[in-house]
Each structure stands twice: as C-alpha cells, then as structure tokens.
Amino acid sequence: MEQEDRELGREPDPGSPLASGSEVDGRPEADPAEMTAVDTGFQSLDPRIIRLWQVGNLIFCVAVLAAAAVGTAFVWTQSTISRLAPIWMVPAALVLVFVLVFWLPPRRYATRLYRMGARVLELRKGIFWKTSVMIPLSRLQHVDLNQGPLERKWGLAVLEIHTAGTSNATHKLEGLDYETGKGLREKLIEAADLEEK
C-alpha cells in the first residue's frame, strides 16, 4: 500500500512508518545510540595508536615486573617472612599485563575523538569519566607538532595546542597520522590567524 501511495504521489497514511519518520527510502532510520564518529562530525585517531599504546604499556609492565622481581628476591632472602608471601604477585602481574596491554588501548582509542568547527576545536576522551574540552580558536597562542621515537616508528604525531590563560593552557591530541597532524595544524593556524600575530 505504501509503495502504491509513493508511485501515485500521495502522502503516506499518518499511521504508517514512513509518516512517522521511522524509515527513509525503505530503510530503517539510524538509531542515535548507534551513530559513529563520522555521523556526528567527530574524527577518530589513527588506529596505529593502539599498537603504540600497547608497546608503551608493555614497557611500563616490564619495568614494574622487574621491580617486583627484585622485591620478591629480597623477601625470599628474609628468614622471618614466609616464602609464600609474594606468590600473589604472579596473578597480579598477569592481570596488570592483560588490562594495560590488551584491554585498555582499544577502549581508550574508541573514546578519543576530535572535531574542528568554525570557532572551536572539541576534544573528547574518557572510558569511565567522560571529558569534553572546547578550545576556542580565538584563544590559540601557538600549535606544535611533535614526534617521539615510537611516534616516528609508526608515522604518528602529537599535536600540542597552547592557549591563552594559566589553567589548562596546553592540550595534547595524540595518535594523529603525521600528515593529518600537519594538515590540522595548518587549519588551526589559519583559523586562528596565528601567522599575523
């Protein structure tokens, strides 16, 4: 019936799904809860940042485990302390590695978004506690593009944004492809008229 109405140019019945807006061109309308970063105008970081975070967290875990091994050796040499005392460190170490290397980076990546508007740059992050930062382009002082050894290895960069003011005057947007970071830096400079200041 709805197809026939469409072909004859008649308005659909008010009770039909087409009239309520639940369908568009025969397809169900998108659920706002399922909208992606592209749908909302936000950009995701480069997915290679997940690997970089995993390597960085693995290095941290190795340092922590080395310190724990030294502590365990010290405990085992003390005759007054049971040698079973540090046995809990093995499962704790496995949990630490799992959380920091495998669980955290993909979830961190999914929550890190950015969007540049005509007057503001918006940064979003947070797994448990969500944070949204709006940086007025009129308050930009200068913008740096940095690469550490790990960023260079994966072709990534960190955009460092300095604004006027004393509190939270520096913001970092890590995990950008180097060329994307250069382009965003140029857009920010142009939008804020930094070259003329």
Q: What is the fold's blueprint, element by element?
A:
Layout: H1 2-8, H2 17-20, E1 23-24, E2 27-28, H3 37-40, E3 43-44, H4 48-77, H5 89-111, E4 113-116, E5 120-125, E6 131-136, E7 140-146, H6 149-154, E8 156-163, E9 170-177, H7 178-192
Antiparallel strand pairs: 1-2, 3-4, 4-5, 5-6, 7-8, 8-9
Describe this structure in words.
- The chain has helices at residues 2-8, 17-20, 37-40, 48-77, 89-111, 149-154, 178-192; strands at 23-24, 27-28, 43-44, 113-116, 120-125, 131-136, 140-146, 156-163, 170-177.
- The chain folds into two domains: 46-110; 113-196, PH-domain like (Roll).
- The relative contact order is 0.11.
- The radius of gyration is 26 Å and the shape is elongated.
- The protein is built from seven helices and nine strands.
- Helix 4 packs antiparallel against helix 5 (89-111).
- A four-stranded antiparallel sheet has the order 3-4-5-6. The protein has a three-stranded antiparallel sheet with strand order 7-8-9. The chain has a two-stranded antiparallel sheet with strand order 1-2.
- With 197 residues, it is an alpha+beta fold.
Task: Give me some keywords for this one.
alpha+beta; PH-domain like; four-stranded antiparallel beta sheet; three-stranded antiparallel beta sheet; 9 strands; 23% strand; elongated
